[in-house]
Amino acid sequence: MTGTRSRWTAAGAVAAGVLLAGCTSTVSGTATPLASAPPTTSEAPDPTPSEPPVDVTPAPAPTVGTLLEAHRIASVTSLVQATFPARTDTCFPSGPWSDAGALDAAYFGSGTAGTVLDRWGFVTAWGQCNSDPADGRATLTMVAELSDPESARRAAAELAADQAGAGYEPTSVPGVDGEAVLLEDGGEDVVQVFVPVGRMLAYAYHTAAAGQGLDDVGRLMTDQVGLLQGFTPTPQAQVPTLPPDPVGLQSLTLDPPGDFTDFSGPYDLEGYLRLAIDPARERDLLSANGFRGFYSKQSDEDELSYAVALYAFPTSTQTNAVYTTFAELEATEFGGTRFTLPSIPDAPCFWFESGESFYQRCYVGYGSYLASVDVLGLTAPDDVAAMDRLLPAQRDLIDG
């Protein structure tokens, strides 16, 4: 799973409520009940009106399907690196959001944005965050699924009003039909923009050098709108019945120790790329080798985090091609130090520094399947006890 190394910090920060791997229906948080009366004014909406509308389609109760829908939205959330190639470092907040209050705390911090989203039928969302390691400037993108196009439009206006103040001023972004606020401070532009596209609400937070923020966000949101124009959100009543394992990979993916995070579950190719370190290169590699599907199980237990990933291809020839290339990338591009795992000495295994701790990644393949196992949070790079148990168990699952 070449792309997910930088995800573990983000994954740990998302409430680990829905166990897609186990197909349960427990989730973090609950949906806020929708009230029942429409706004009575055509003026700019109050961010916290007391009587929400009656015509909002109620969001489904959070289930496994809610996270599956978030994983679908991942596929059409703009890749920050596609617009800003220098912003290669993954940051928080990223990933799926099934609770509007948690999303508010991570993205907006207003204490009222979650109420706005719930009032307009919030179903679920996916977010991306990338920063430039050279200057620390960051870009966040987020796409939320709401009740209907009018709800998305009103939510955009209310959220922009909610964020105005504290130096932010209303503005417009060239070529973008949405709401925006701009903060100009100390030679920096900070832009927030909210753009409705059908039932979907696209959001971006972008920092840039003075005078560049609006044009930058215009390019980013042009890409984002293009992605959403080809997306059909799942009707609310059908969200709970989304297939949890569309390619049949769940049972072949090892259950790691601990509590699953919301990143766990199936992804199509574009969704997987939202977990990738180098999306462009991995898109080319996986597409060229007939990528059929991907399933991830990520978990936390005490001081350690784990990730098990399974890729499916048409034949062993294509599996081997990806296996070889991923191993080369870990060593040459991503700075991994190779080590030998006692239980499977020929497996490509690498360790990496991660702050004050270490993590390990090993690959194993058989037939049409390629798997990787990660162990994060180790105090020593040569502590192979967990990996020595997990990798053979994953191998046994895929070789039958």
UniProtKB/TrEMBL annotation:
Composition-biased stretches (Low complexity): 31-45, 53-62
Region (Disordered): 31-62
Keyword Signal: yes
Signal sequence, start to end: 1-21
Coiled coil region boundaries: none
Name of the protein in question: DUF7373 domain-containing protein
PROSITE patterns: PROKAR_LIPOPROTEIN (PS51257)
Record's keyword terms, sorted: Signal
Domain DUF7373: 58-243
